[in-house]
Amino acid sequence: MAVCDPDQPDPGPGSHMFDDELLGLDPGEPEAQAFAAHLDRMRREPSFTVEASLTGVGDFADAANRAEGGRRWAAVLVVLLLLAGVVYVASTILTAVLTIMAR
User: Fold this and answer.
1) What CA–CA distance (Å, rounded) separates 75 from 63?
2) pTM of the full predicted structure?
């Protein structure tokens, strides 16, 4: 069992889950912590539930906010295309409903 250094911050619960993948990395380094968080997201529950899908949308939004340059513009383009699709489908349905009601 390893002795904890009192000068180092507590890595928190579940910090030993990825010991094999993080072997040789400093657990206090921000890049190693980000990599551990990435591994945690990759091993998360399946995304076929509504809650998991919403979590995926939140992860996309977080990643888009952190992105810079071309990746940020690509994320903006994806969001705009999704919104355009939603507006098109909603207008098509609304047109069909109003046409049916006008008869």
Assistant:
1) 9
2) 0.51
Taking the mean position of all CA atoms in its chain, how far away is CA 33? 16
103 vs 99: CA distance, rounded Å: 7
The residue behind tokens 């919403």 is 54
* Contact between residue 32 and residue 11 where contact means Cβ atoms under 8 Å apart: no
pLDDT tens sequence across 30-84: 888 888 877 777 777 666 777 777 778 888 888 888 889 999 999 999 999 999 9
70: left (phi over 0), alpha (psi -120 to 50) or beta: alpha
Let me know the angle formed at the C-alpha of 60 by 33 and 77, rounded to the nearest 5 degrees: 135
Beta carbons of 34 and 16 less than 8 angstroms apart: no
For position 11, what pLDDT does the model report?
A: 47
Count of Cβ atoms closer than 10 Å to residue 50 Cβ: 8
